[in-house]
Amino acid sequence: MRILQSVFFVFLLSVVFSQVTFAEENNISSGLPVQGKISSSNDKDIYRFTMDKDGEARIILDNTTSGFYAYLYDSNGKEVTSTYTSTAGLNIGFLEYLKKGTYSVELQPYHWSANGDTSGSYRLKATYAASTVKRDAKTFEPNDTLETSMPIKSGKMYTSDISSTDRDVYQFTTKKDGEAYITFDNLTEAFYVTLFDSNRKEVTSAYTSSAGGEISLLTDIQKGTYYIVVNDYCEECQTTSASYRLKATFASTFTRDAKTFETNDTIETSMPIISNKYYNSSSFSSLDRDVYKFTTKKDGEARITLDNTKAGFSAYLYDSNGTEVARTYTARAGKKITFSPRVKKGTYYIVINPYGWGGSGITSATYRLKATYKNRATAPSVPTINKLTSKSVKVTGKGTKGTTIYVYNSVKKIGRGSVSSKGNYSVKIKAQKKGTVVRVYAKDKYGNKSKSRTIRVK
């Protein structure tokens, strides 16, 4: 009888335990993927993590060999969200804004009996606000959430890579209102890029649906902190790895390159230039945008010249309110382009963009820029003229130091010279007939012209 009772007890235990779900519990660090395996349809794996502050938690389950349920619970055991996949190899996950506290991710088999599965492996990654995060110097991981975002500097290039389950977030702070110019190039896959403000509100976004494309975002933003979120455009494509290059230019401290004048992609980082001087520079990619600034102290003509071009370029002139004043372009290398609008006293911006580079194979090109405008509030003084006779072969007098003296008779220009550091000038001319009226005026390097003075040849 005792033997029969013992046998029955063992049988009963085996029936009971066949219905029991076995749970394995572990802690999971922010941004560090873990490999796991469930060996029975009655098992489940539980991973716990603690948010040190309110913020985003991004949970990703990939490299699955079977179907899985994924649940997220708070510290009271209340379900926050859940998702599932019934197919091996399909990635799943969720992105939630959570309060500070402890949470658990629970993984359970799904649809195993229908698929004939008896076990399944997976990879789990949870990225959340933790007190300590060790960032990879090359990939900047973990940077999947706003709270783990990678801080970046204005005008600096950053190169990284991403997979279809990855999400890269970068952070920058602008110290005043102004433009933000964000570029993505050297893309080996399709990407989707979004800019958010500190309230997690979308500011703008853009995408490219194919490898080799380019993305640029130009927007006016207010002083504050912003986040650039980079996603694989085709999440269902199961991309294993794709690389990109990122550059963001915004109002902040930066170091200007003496040769290229970078960073000068925005109004706030524009390169100041002076009148009548040549500036040689280059665009290092088809997305490189160069901005120059000048201030004219009186109304008058502003002449903008772009030459020595090694590719196509466009040139725009804007006033201080962002209103377009003039524009021109060339699609051919070597062509000189010029425009000469009349402008009011004030500050203006010249924006140089690559033009027509797409599909041409051009990756960088140089150019030369010159702007001539009235940079002084007052014109040079009217030059004096010493006595002229029919035997004189030079015109002499006094004028404003550093200005250019132009000499005309009633028909044409007959000479030109410069005023010395002592304020004297001497311009060679051919002898003029008695009674000829000779006219002289001065012009400074900023384009300001004096009134004319005349004298009759004796």
How would you portray this structure in words?
With 458 residues, the chain is mainly beta. It has 4 domains: 18-127, Jelly Rolls, CATH 2.60.120.380; 150-249, Jelly Rolls, CATH 2.60.120; 271-372, Jelly Rolls (Sandwich), CATH 2.60.120; 394-456, Immunoglobulin-like (Sandwich), CATH 2.60.40. It has helices spanning 2-18, 112-115; strands spanning 22-27, 34-38, 43-51, 55-62, 68-73, 79-85, 92-98, 101-109, 120-127, 150-151, 157-162, 167-174, 178-185, 191-197, 202-208, 215-221, 224-232, 242-249, 271-272, 277-283, 290-296, 300-301, 303-307, 313-319, 324-330, 337-339, 342-343, 346-354, 365-372, 394-398, 404-408, 413-418, 424-428, 437-443, 453-456. The chain has a 5-stranded mixed β-sheet with strand order 1-3-8-5-6, with no helix packed on it. Strands 10-12-17-14-15 form a 5-stranded mixed β-sheet, with no helix packed on it. Strand 24 and strand 25 (324-330) form a beta hairpin.
